[in-house]
Specification:
Layout (H helix, E strand, L loop, with lengths): L1 H26 L7 H4 L5 H21 E7 L4 H14 L2 E4 L6 E5 L2 H6 L6 E5 L3 E7 H13 L3
Antiparallel strand pairs: 1-5, 2-3, 3-4, 4-5
Length: about 150
């Protein structure tokens, strides 16, 4: 279900960005204001563009969200403060969840907005450390920060 929600959010984001670009071009008088003159196929181009954006939106969650293993030696008492420190340093705050799962969310509203409120990093304890799940670029940054910490 998360996959579908992420795809829909990304599709809407792509369409809004495209509409803004077209609006700026029209307002700057770089292109005419009539859709049939902007695109070669006229109004038929709109559904073709929407279909192309839907394909991109369907693929993105598979590539953009990852689950990675962080090797963090030690007990929970030793490693949780390090994990909390790394997360705070990178702008995350601990999220209180009813299911008891350890999750972090971005503090800054701007960061949350640009990530379409898909900014949660889920953390699960594993035998060798932690397993982080979330947006790929953020998870990789956090893994590198955890690896560089002294234990």
């Amino acid at each position: 279900m998360r996959y579908i929600i992420r795809s829909v959010k990304y599709f809407v984001q792509l369409m809004v960005i495209l509409a803004l670009i077209i609006a700026v071009l029209v307002l700057a008088k770089i292109v005419p204001g009539d859709i049939s003159k902007i695109f070669v196929n006229g109004y038929d181009s709109l559904w073709q563009i929407a279909l192309l954006m839907a394909v991109f939106a369907a693929i993105y969650p598979r590539l953009g969200y990852v689950k990675r293993q962080a090797v963090v030696p030690g007990s929970d008492e030793e490693t949780l403060p390090v994990l909390d420190s790394v997360m705070r340093t990178h702008g995350y705050e601990k999220e209180q969840r009813a299911d008891g799962k350890l999750c972090y969310r971005k503090k800054a509203l701007g960061d949350r907005l640009t990530r379409l409120w898909e900014d949660r990093i889920s953390v699960e304890r594993s035998v060798t450390g932690y397993e982080l799940e979330g947006i790929g670029r953020d998870v990789i940054r956090l893994l590198n920060a955890l690896r560089s910490r002294e234990y």
